[in-house]
Description:
Mean pLDDT: 84
Bound molecules: adenosine-5'-diphosphate
Order of helices and strands: HHEEEEHHHHEHEEHEEHHHEE
CATH class of the largest domain: Alpha Beta
Low-confidence stretches: 1-17
Amino acid sequence: MDSSLSTFQRFDIPKISIKENIWNAANSAALEHDVPFSIVGVDSIFKSLGLDVGIRLITTDSLMWNTEHRLVSDLINPRMKAVIPYSILEKKAVELTYDIPISRVIKSMGTILIISLMLSVLLIVCLIWQISTIRQLLKLDNVRNSFVHTMIHELKRPISTLKICISSLGNPRLIVDEENRNDIIDDCRMAVNNLSDYFSRLRDITFNEASQIPLNIENCDLHGMVDSIIEKTSIPSAKKVEIVNDIPSDFKIVGDRLHLSQIISNLVENAVKYSGDTVRIIIGCKTFEDDISIIVKDNGNGISDGDLNKIFTKFYRSSDAMQSGMPGVGLGLAYVKLLTEAHSGQVSVISHQGKGSTFIIKLPQK
Ligand code: ADP
């Protein structure tokens, strides 16, 4: 046996080898060559098979009669080993080592790897889709809860007014005075009107097409309408709010009185809501050719550039509005847009964060 056998030897080969080749070669070496055999014999077997195999002479712990084959399943460095008895009584054996090139492993596992990769991608996509569905459901649940809350809040006011008025009408002491009685009846009428307005608003918001909204077009006194909106606007006691009616007196506009009043009051309510401790709101108008623009301007919080093109979408609320716990369900501006479009008009907004917003409702008059 050549002494150089104890050092690792390699032969470069271009061919793809298989496990059986190594084991068969090891068996051939054991069976077809006398023990001890020569390196030339072993080398020539591997060379003929085109294998790059390391050959090393080792000492075994016990007597070794048969060839042992092992596959070292290391994913990074997969290798096959065969230990062939060399000089049995001297406890000498020849260890053959074949490093399986990682590219060959990948090649042989290619299909499985591609399928696993595709399945993993599919799994990740499903997971992301499921998470987004859950988030959407949670958002929808929040919207539903806040919608119900707002509805209860809006309905509570006229109902409690009606309750008080009706119990007052049952009190003979309060209704003896005719002026008193008329006041109570007026309040009743106002509460019922508020209820009916609210239900019309609910009905309108369920329409997807502006053209579906019924209109009752008439010549309206815009100045008077704005005055009564200002009077009805509820102002939080902690806020200093100034609302200016900048519409010329006796200014007339063609449109649905109820809807125009709802458009303006929604914009005014928002201007009050989305502002600091002090706010100035100016309601004005501009005539241009056949159009009239109603302009509601405030010096409140303003709207970020990112939110500007989303605020007219149903149920959209800015993250600031949600974080501050400001009441609302994100339907106000969608409703304003719907009612404006029902009049074949257009709504637009100019706003700068921290400086204020200007909403413009352009309504054709012919
Ligand atoms: P809501 O008031 O219920 O949130 P809206 O549709 O009325 O729903 O308004 C949508 C969003 O537009 C609000 O969440 C708010 O962020 C923003 N917004 C509306 N009006 C104003 C305003 N005058 N100033 C600042 N932000 C406003």
